[in-house]
């Protein structure tokens, strides 16, 4: 039977004030999905995984979009998906999104559907909807396209890679915690439905500064822009370690720090001016004060989804 392998990388979404719009792919972790055509008689998705994610396709971020693909293209095919999880889930690393993108990309190649990258994002958000109750496109856009992306339109989906003219590297501060089921769904329920105009203006300044800083290669602008006055603050009970960790990162001259997606992972942008050792040492104490250990993983901005026909 013909089968295809696709690999999609982890991501950090929001990036300060870019809630549901900005996201960054990174090489830290990846999910791989093997898609196999079993028969052309019955419309069905069969699931396997090396991890404890749900194997009901409707509740798996990889299975749900593939079911939607088969329906959209009116294909009575049975597809087997084997989801090899490499992105730790429930930690703000775009784990659900990586699986969704890898699955859609693999089935696209397997069935010669000729989907564009934006089509892949359009279907992959169905996976995010299945696990978080909301089709947020940011994580899947970064895992599909690579780099740092802005989702400039939701319907139709339009994704733009942001030119990066600043040299920096990434450190992920990942708490060794189990956030249980549906972490992002719970986090999204904390976000206010209405905000004051002053907060909108403040976040618009942050978003403008962050994006312009990347494009102009202006370190100070990026530092000024990597902030958020609305979503991060509304969710602080889910990551009480974050404010102090951010303060330490900035004290030791990190370019900036933000919550990775809905957390609890914290993303730190750094360069040669940053005293990374001090951040790790003092950041580790902050994590311990909150009752858990953290892993400090350095990584780089990632690529888009990779597809490999196996036979
Ligand atoms: N293929 C999958 N990969 C990761 N999580 C999945 C997958 N399918 C379903 N889930 C569920 O989605 C939740 C994790 O996704 P989410 O809450 O968005 O956090 P994150 O994206 O930070 O990992 C968990 O409850 C997990 O069981
Ligand atoms: N914009 C979303 C991003 C969720 O990212 P995740 O990696 O935590 O799933 C949100 O903030 O809800």
TrEMBL record:
Main location (coarse class): cytoplasm
InterPro entries registered for this protein in UniProt: GHMP_kinase_C_dom (IPR013750), GHMP_kinase_C_sf (IPR036554), GHMP_kinase_N_dom (IPR006204), GHMP_knse_ATP-bd_CS (IPR006203), Homoserine_kinase (IPR000870), Ribosomal_Su5_D2-typ_SF (IPR020568), Ribsml_uS5_D2-typ_fold_subgr (IPR014721)
CC annotations in GO: cytoplasm
Domain GHMP kinase N-terminal: 66-147
Reaction catalysed by this enzyme: L-homoserine + ATP = O-phospho-L-homoserine + ADP + H(+)
Pathway annotation from the record: Amino-acid biosynthesis; L-threonine biosynthesis; L-threonine from L-aspartate: step 4/5
Pfam families listed in its UniProt record: GHMP_kinases_C, GHMP_kinases_N
GO term, biological process aspect, one: threonine biosynthetic process
Residue numbers binding ATP: 88-98
Superkingdom classification of source: Archaea
Summary of the function given for this chain in its UniProt record: Catalyzes the ATP-dependent phosphorylation of L-homoserine to L-homoserine phosphate.
Protein name: Homoserine kinase
Gene name for this UniProt entry: thrB
């Amino acid at each position: 039977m013909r089968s295809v392998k696709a690999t999609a990388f982890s991501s950090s979404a929001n990036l300060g004030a870019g809630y549901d719009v900005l996201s960054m792919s990174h090489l830290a972790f990846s999910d791989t999905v093997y898609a196999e055509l079993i028969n052309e008689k019955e419309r069905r998705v069969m699931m396997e995984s090396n991890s404890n994610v749900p194997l009901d396709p409707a509740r798996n971020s990889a299975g749900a979009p593939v079911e939607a693909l088969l329906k959209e293209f009116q294909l009575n095919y049975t597809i087997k998906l084997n989801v090899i999880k490499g992105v730790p889930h429930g930690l703000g690393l775009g784990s659900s999104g990586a699986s969704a993108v890898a699955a859609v990309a693999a089935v696209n190649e397997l069935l010669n559907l000729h989907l564009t990258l934006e089509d892949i994002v359009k279907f992959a958000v169905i996976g995010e909807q299945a696990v978080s109750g909301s089709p947020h496109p940011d994580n899947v856009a970064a895992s599909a396209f690579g780099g740092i992306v802005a989702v400039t339109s939701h319907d139709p989906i339009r994704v733009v890679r942001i030119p990066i003219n600043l040299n920096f590297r990434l450190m992920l501060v990942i708490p060794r915690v189990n956030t249980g089921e549906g972490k992002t769904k719970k986090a999204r329920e904390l976000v206010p439905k209405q905000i004051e105009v002053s907060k909108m203006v403040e976040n618009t300044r942050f978003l403008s500064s962050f994006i312009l800083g990347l494009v102009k290669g202006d370190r100070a602008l990026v530092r000024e822009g990597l902030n958020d006055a609305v979503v991060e603050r509304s969710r602080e009970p889910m990551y009480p370690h974050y404010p102090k960790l951010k303060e330490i990162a900035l004290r030791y001259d990190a370019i900036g720090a933000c919550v990775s997606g809905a957390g609890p992972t914290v993303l730190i942008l750094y360069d040669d001016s940053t005293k990374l050792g001090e951040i790790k040492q003092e950041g580790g104490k902050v994590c311990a004060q909150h009752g858990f250990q953290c892993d400090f993983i350095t990584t780089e901005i990632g690529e888009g989804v990779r597809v490999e026909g196996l036979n």
